[in-house]
Design brief:
Blueprint (H helix, E strand, L loop, with lengths): L12 H6 L5 E5 L4 E3 L7 E7 L2 E7 L2 E8 L4 E2 L2 H6 L6 E4 L3 E7 H11 L5 H25 L2 H11 L1 H6 L2 H8 L3 H15 L6
Antiparallel strand pairs: 1-8, 2-7, 3-6, 3-8, 4-5, 4-7
Length: 197
Amino acid sequence: MLFHFKDKFPQLNPYWDKYLEFQKKVEVPAKTVLLEEGKTAAHYIFIEKGCIRLAFNNNGNDKTVQFFFEKEGLTSFESFLKNTPSLFTIETIEPSVLYLLPKIYVKQLMDELSREPEFLNIILEVSAERQLHYMHEFVSFIRDTPEQRYQNLLKDRPHIVKRVPQHYIASYLGITRVHLSRIKSALARKSSPKNIR
């Protein structure tokens, strides 16, 4: 139950299965803080069920950076790798079923996997995929209006709009909840059929 790319590479299943016994399964309610900003990340988190957000505090304002759902994995990577204070808070949005693998076992697993001839290519592929995703989001944040960013969300990641509370979506888009309501109202007016006269 480890790593969001597990299902894409079944040839590595023996490694995942070997570390199942070291993973702690937890069931937690919504709004459970799994890692607090400023603390050091000690686990890799795999989501079996639920939704998680990555966020940070900006002068008292809560800013959502990313959302994660079923069969995805996450941690605060810089903190996890360098033992530094996390720049982010990791918090559940929905009641969630999670698997936590302590850092020591993640390192052991990665060491074993590094001996696999195909693993370097797998890591490069997964890293490139994530890098492209974040790059597109970064460009969109600079180039597009909030309305365009919301429309992109509706088109590319509609599950976020369906499952995530509006105030988190507004924070993710870099706008207020009032602004998001206006955008939604404007889009609803555009999509409604015109009155026949």
